[in-house]
Design brief:
The chain has 153 residues and is mainly alpha-helical. It has one domain (2-116). It is 86% helix and 0% strand. It contains three helices and no strands. α1 (7-33) packs across α2 (35-60), α1 (7-33) packs across α3 and α2 (35-60) crosses α3 (74-152).
């Protein structure tokens, strides 16, 4: 396992397992006491994972693919399914937090860009006013020069 050589990776994986453990235990308890949840929510992902895992291992070993892969026993499938669902739950929370942070950053950036655009608009209006004043002053200067030329003649 490549991530096993990195201490930060080990800490991260250990943290995820520690966080997802109580939720997994709850799912296992629900699987034991509620057959509907066990049969339709917990066991199918575990059986699907088992099928993909066995087929991929056989494919990597270049062995013949069996027509039917034997299903996992109920306790093993319950444990595996509960672990998978608990880690998916933690992953979902993490993805939700990332989405929240990204949307918050996007909103903040959008607000800053809007403020910059407003400042640009105000500055453009000021420049237009100054340009109008300069043109008016230039016309007055030209009028005064013309008046001085007429007076000198």
């Amino acid at each position: 396992m490549v991530i096993g050589s990195f201490p930060v990776g080990k800490i991260f994986i250990h943290g995820v397992k520690r966080i997802s453990k109580p939720f997994g235990d709850l799912l296992i308890w629900m699987g034991k006491h509620h057959p509907f949840i066990r049969r339709y929510i917990i066991i199918p992902p575990a059986q699907l994972y088992n099928t993909f895992e066995v087929r991929s291992k056989l494919r990597m070993l270049r062995l013949k693919q069996p027509r039917r892969i034997p299903p996992l026993s109920t306790p093993v499938a319950t444990r595996l399914g509960a672990d998978m669902l608990s880690e998916a739950f933690v992953f979902g929370i993490g993805a939700g937090l990332i989405y929240y942070e990204l949307s918050k950053t996007y909103t903040k950036t959008k607000k800053q860009n809007q403020e910059i655009e407003d400042q640009k608009r105000v500055l453009d209006e000021c420049v237009d006013c100054i340009s109008a004043d300069v043109e008016r002053n230039q016309r007055e200067i030209n009028w005064i020069k013309a008046a001085l030329k007429n007076v000198e003649k």
